[in-house]
Amino acid sequence: MNKSIMRADDNRRLLLRLAVSAVVMFGFGFLLVPFYEQICEATGINNYLRPEAEQGARAVGNTQVDSSRSVLVQFDANLHDLPWRFQPLQRSIEVHPGQFVQIEYEVMNNRDVPVTGQAVPSYGPQVAARYFNKMECFCFEQQTLAPGERRIMPVVFVLDPGLPREVSVITLSYTFFELPGRNTAVLTGGPAKQQAGSRSPAPARGAGAT
Question: pTM of the entire structure?
Answer without folding.
Answer: 0.62
